[in-house]
Design goal:
Strand content: 5-15%
Distance between the termini: 35 Å
Number of helices: 14
Order of helices and strands: HHHHHHEHEEEEEEHEEHHHHHH
Number of strands: 9
Helix content: 40-55%
Oligomer: single chain
CATH class of the largest domain: Mainly Alpha
Shape: globular
CATH architecture of the largest domain: Up-down Bundle
Length: 417
């Protein structure tokens, strides 16, 4: 296997980094995040039309570039470095793959070219407040209990009598970019409790009645969240019929999405580390740069190793996302959390001021782990899927086991005995 980046991938990285360096400084990030859409619409248009960003991994027959997940991961790493507020993850990592996998020919033809061109943004709305569970990253999503379990609550769907169509009612509390997306993919239960099954529906909030979208105050302004309320809202079933395995499709989409999120987290961690190295090289104490002190060097070296290890895991997951996405995301989120915390510390009193750019990265780390983690559950679920603790009656797995590295190996050995 050749692990080197191709010339095309290097060109994607170079072009995107130059553009974002010019138009996405920390002050630009704050200004864009505080707009009504939550991102710079003009910059998003340019990224879509000039660079083909949202259609990077979509087939050419639907207006995409026709690249793979690795190229999209390269782009996500660069957007993570700049903390670019954009609907890229919601549209290209969550919604578009599900439309491509489950949609009818007519639905794909109508929606994917508009997504690839940047004219339509989309997001996945799941009830229950746990996107990671719905995607099968922190728990088994097959039972569909995260979507309401067929009982009161969650999101419910009923067919329209005498017509081809559906009506949805319920609430999704934390929808990424839900306040601005032009298309909602809503996971809802149909059939009531006896025949309950989870289905995906297309909702066009600009034209459908009964849609209430409320942008929520989020810890990370660059990751806007919204509460979606549907009140007898007209919806279109995604796919040809209601026999499709939606929970399986969500789980299949979960690991590629986790690989892209891991790449984005690695980009943010690398940028935070670079900014910290630059600062300690210029900040003097006792007549010398604080970066020359051995204790500071050791801390930065540990961070560098952690970030590079997470980067390797993220790109391995992009190359083979079937089983590695959740673990790569866990490693990247941990690296981001550790690096940003150290960045605040090593910036000293300046780093503790709320307005400093270090807090943009610190809040991204905290918010991403709340939204897509936590790390110990990502690792625990990966360990359960791998069967590391299967059949261990004498030594049950610890609730918050990290299930990685030498500890996991020793645990697996004890189980085998």
């Amino acid at each position: 296997m050749d692990a080197a980046f191709t010339a095309e991938q290097d060109e994607i990285r170079r072009t995107l980094r130059e553009l974002l360096a010019a138009q996405c400084a920390p002050d630009d990030v704050k200004s864009a995040a505080r707009t009504a859409d939550g991102y710079d619409a003009e910059l998003w248009r340019r990224l879509a039309q000039d660079l083909g960003l949202p259609g990077l991994a979509l087939p050419q027959e639907y207006g995409g570039v026709g690249c793979g997940l690795t190229e999209l991961a390269v782009a996500c790493e660069e957007t993570g470095r700049a903390l670019l507020p954009s609907p890229l993850i919601a549209t290209a990592a969550l919604a578009a793959p599900l439309i491509a996998a489950l949609g009818t020919d007519a639905q794909r033809t109508a929606l994917l070219p508009r997504i690839a061109a940047g004219g339509l943004t989309a997001t996945l709305a799941v009830p229950g407040g746990s996107l990671a569970t719905a995607l099968g990253l922190t728990a088994d999503s097959a039972d569909g209990t995260w979507a309401g379990g067929g009982r009161a609550g969650g999101m419910q769907a009923r067919p329209v009598t005498g017509a081809q169509g559906w009506r949805l009612y319920g609430e999704a509390a934390q929808v990424l970019d839900g306040h601005s997306a032009g298309l909602l993919l809503v996971a809802a239960h149909a059939g009531g409790f006896p025949r309950s099954r989870t289905l995906l529906f297309l909702v066009r909030p600009d034209t459908a009645a009964g849609v209430v979208r409320t942008r929520r105050t989020s810890l990370d302004e660059t990751r806007p969240l919204a509460r979606i309320e549907l009140r007898d809202t007209e919806a279109e079933l995604l796919g040809a019929d209601d026999a499709v395995d939606v929970t399986g499709a969500l789980a299949s989409a979960g690991h590629p999405a986790a690989a892209l999120l891991a790449a984005q987290a690695v980009g943010a961690a690398a940028s935070a580390l670079e900014r910290t190295v630059e600062y300690v090289g210029a900040r003097e104490q006792f007549g010398r740069a604080i970066g020359s002190f051995q204790a500071v060097k050791h801390r930065l070296a540990d961070l560098y190793v952690q970030v590079q290890a997470a980067r390797s895991a993220a790109y391995y997951a992009a190359w083979d996302p079937a089983d590695a996405g959740g673990l790569a995301l866990a490693q990247a989120l941990e690296a981001l959390r550790t690096t940003t915390a150290e960045a605040v510390q090593l910036h000293g009193g300046l780093g503790f001021t709320w307005e400093h750019e270090a807090h943009l990265y610190f809040k991204r780390a905290a918010a991403d782990e709340l939204l897509f983690g936590p790390v110990h559950r990502l690792r625990d679920h990966a360990a359960q899927r791998a069967g590391l603790f299967a059949g261990s009656a004498m030594e049950p797995a610890a609730p918050e086991s990290t299930a990685s590295g030498p500890t996991a190996s020793r645990s697996a050995g004890r189980v085998a005995v």
